[in-house]
Amino acid sequence: MKKAAVQTDHNNPVISIRGLKKAFQDYAVLRGIDLDLYQGENLVVLGRSGTGKSVLIKIISGLLKPDEGMVKVFGQDIAHITEDDLQKLRIRIGFSFQNSALYDSMTVRKNLEFPLVRNKRNLTRGEINTAVETVLDAVGLSQTINQMPSELSGGQRKRIGIARTLILNPEVMLYDEPTAGLDPITCIEINDLINEVQQRYNTSSIIITHDLTCAKQTGDRIAMLLDGQFQRTGTFDEVFNTTDSRVKPFYDYNFIE
Amino acid sequence: MDNTQSITRHTNKRFVKLKQSLSDFFLTLYRINQFIIRFFKEAFVPPFELKEVIRQCYEVGVRSFTLISVTGFIVGVIFTKQSRPSLSQFGAESWLPSLVSIAIMRALAPLVTALIASGKVGSSIGAELGSMRVTEQIDAMEVSGTKPFKYLVCTRVLATTLTIPILSTYTGFVALFGGYLNVTMNEGTTWTTFIQEVFEPLTFTDFVASLIKSIVFGFTIGIVGCYQGYNSNKGTEGVGKAANGAVITAMFLVFIEEVIIVQITGWFR
Fold it and tell me: Which of A90, A206, B139, B218 is at a distance of 20 to 30 A from B178, taking alpha carbons?
């Protein structure tokens, strides 16, 4: 499915990062990151394994604390807000984990209900059921409602993981390696779903991947993370139209279309 | 000279290792302390996860029920059997029910229950939460604006604290029944006489002390299991370590608490 054109508002970034640094023991993973995510756009962060892509979105969602720098989400500096405010902020951010992170002791229905009933405590049973059915329908997996996560395929688990984040109507989506470990056909289906979510829910997204097909299909803008910093940013063609020996092999070793 | 240098180097190395171990030990103590404070801050503040507490109580009870029944019964039978020869030397077999009841109600029932629960429940909590940490399920709860500590830790600790005293009381009665079977087969004592002799030496303090002990043990097993699992390292090794650490630490603390509580209750008798 071809990606539809999107309108982005470049005046008000929903996420704004300046001078972000993060190290683990003596190894500096992020060495001064600057980044803006604008309303309505899909930003793909590309990079080799271990370059700190997942660390970046874990910092944005408040799972990790930055060593230095500023990370503003909807204008709030996440390193300096109270636990309650962080909680409220997180409801506006959807996080799709690399391995889906479905609660394996709960059915699909319970997985979807879990964040909903704990964040919106005054919902009736009917409203909860409607919300669950709507997001399951959005990811095309209505038939799995009573299944356990262990009974689902890898692609289905990814979709349910995305559905679980959509149930709170997030304004920002963070996808951690959405196509990792999936077959090419399922990868394309997931890419289409990411675009559909952007259109249907009007979300801004950061997509972490090293899959160039995913980057090309879903990204409005690409940021190439190398040596702890963004070396190239722009459209897919702008990023890869280069002779930079650190970027070129990344393109050459990927099979696209 | 070389020999002296080698000894000095060796001593320094051991000193550094000891310093590191001590520092790790106190750091762990500090973290457990923070974990306990967090439990009290979150457990009694709404919204409550009552359904999950009840589910966990059921899990704790069911997980340990069979093993506790069998062990309690065997402890009762064996303790009675082993005590008889000593009492018979003084012709005091009639004191057997009293001796058995004091030993079981004051010490054995809470201790045996706690040790079994440490193995069955503690390890299971450690492994379950450890596995949830490794597979990022706890992170997923956190980023979706829910409170995983409240849902996972508070419910489990409340469940062990509430259920283990009940299990302990049950163990006591099963052990007494085991003791009764042994006594009635050997001395022909009737059920009524046995029960009269069992309850005669027991005081209100015994029941209260036993109850408090079980509550403390239950809290310890829950908090240690949750601490190990919730803070486990990533990777499958982390899950194993969490389960193992939960059992060893809980058992160790249960013995220490037993000694302390016995000492304190001794002052009230």
Answer: B218
The rounded distance, in Å, linking the Cα atoms of A128 and A145 is 13
What's the rounded Cα separation, in Å, for the pair A7 and A14?
Answer: 14
pLDDT band at A257 (very low <50, low <70, confident <90, very high): very low
Contacts B145 to A, Cβ<8 Å:
87-88, 90-91, 115, 118-119, 168
Provide the CA B105 distance to its chain's centre, in angstroms: 16
Alpha helices by DSSP H, B89-201: 96-102, 109-117, 123-134, 137-143, 148, 155-187, 191-199
The beta strands (E) that lie in chain B are given as none
Give A212 to chain B, closest Cα distance, Å. 25
- Residue B34 resides in a domain: no
pLDDT of residue A254: 64
Phi, psi of B144 (to 5 degrees): -95, 15
What ipTM does this complex have? Answer: 0.91
Chain A residues with beta carbon closer than 8 angstroms to that of B140: 95, 97, 101-103, 164
Over residues A57-82, mean pLDDT: 94
Element counts in chain B: helices (H) and strands (E)? 11, 0
Confidence band for A255, pLDDT divided at 50, 70 and 90: low
What is the set of domains in chain A, with CATH numbers? 12-102+172-252 (3.40.50.300)
The pTM score is 0.89
Cα–Cα distance measured from residue B210 to residue B175, given in angstroms and rounded to the nearest whole number: 15
Q: What is the pLDDT of residues A115-170, one digit of tens each?
A: 999 999 899 999 999 999 999 999 999 999 999 999 999 999 999 999 999 999 99
Q: Is residue B189 part of a domain?
A: yes
Task: Look at A91 and B144 and tell me if their CB atoms are within 8 Å.
Answer: yes
Q: Is the pLDDT of residue B108 over 60?
A: yes
Residue B167 belongs to domain spanning:
51-268
Q: Which two tokens stand for residue A205?
A: 């997204």
Q: Using the beta-carbon criterion (under 8 Å), do A118 and B143 form an inter-chain contact?
A: no
Q: How far apart are CA A179 and CA A215, in angstroms?
A: 10
Domain count, chain B: 1
Q: Is residue B4 part of a domain?
A: no
Interface of A with B in 79-98 (CB under 8 A): 87-88, 90-91, 93, 95, 97-98
* Secondary structure letter of residue A167 according to DSSP: T
Coil/strand/helix, residue A138: helix
